[in-house]
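Lipoprotein structure dump, as promised
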Amino acid sequence: MRTNLRHGAVLAATTALALALAACGTDSDPDTGGGSGDGAAADPTEPLSVAATPVPQAEILQFVKDNLAEEAGLDLDIREVTDYVIPNTLVNDGDVDANFFQHAPYLDDFNAQQGTDIVPVINVHLEPLGLYSNDLTSADELGDGATIAIPNDATNEGRALQLLAANGLIELADGVGTNATPADVTEDNGITFQELEAASLPRSLEDFDAAVINGNFALEADLVPAEDALVLEEAEGNPYANFLAVKAGNEDDPRVQTLAELLNSDEVRQYIEDTYQGSVVPAFGAPTS
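structure tokens r here:
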């Protein structure tokens, strides 16, 4: 059974978070399945707790739990979260063993801003970022007077602006890369931007002409990126693969290594391809950072 930690806000006060974790049965004691801080010494028979956003990460983990984990000797404990801060906080504090929700640019920024030391273990999949609209059928309809909602976190905001620039909707200053902000837009073609928390973007579609939405949140909102997006990121050469991550020092936890192997298995590749039909694509292999 999954343990649900559903938080709509970005990060509650530490006390409130601790109470929520206690209510959900989370235990930071290394002898009871919490983060041990010493991966090599971890008991391989204890459950491995993984914080994951619901779609597609927790779904992929559930497939592993239901079909592969028992035979591999892995007791997998899936903890669902619904924002981009709590999963890293849980891992850093030792309240869960691992997380599965982010890509390298986001993690690099989080570690730098928060002083954490979380590291990637294995790449699993890519969720192409897309531009969506309730009212428009083509990106060409966006122009003077249009407002586009974009993610407000540092890495996904730049990624969103690069998507718009790649499709000719705006122009960006040379060399800004994934660090782009609206201040780096040199030609907006009359388009304005509203920066919002990523999880709220699907709900914003009725309030704006269009929104750039992360793949997992699009799927949760019953959008089909491969069909519904006005424009969609290219998968080839994309640096935004989502990976399994742990606190530094826990990479050699035998349970983590087992899960990493299962997440890159042929069975998981087939599950991703069959289930998401191009809206999520396998991106297996060692992370680049």
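The two ends are 33 Å apart (CA to CA).
lmk if u need the other ones
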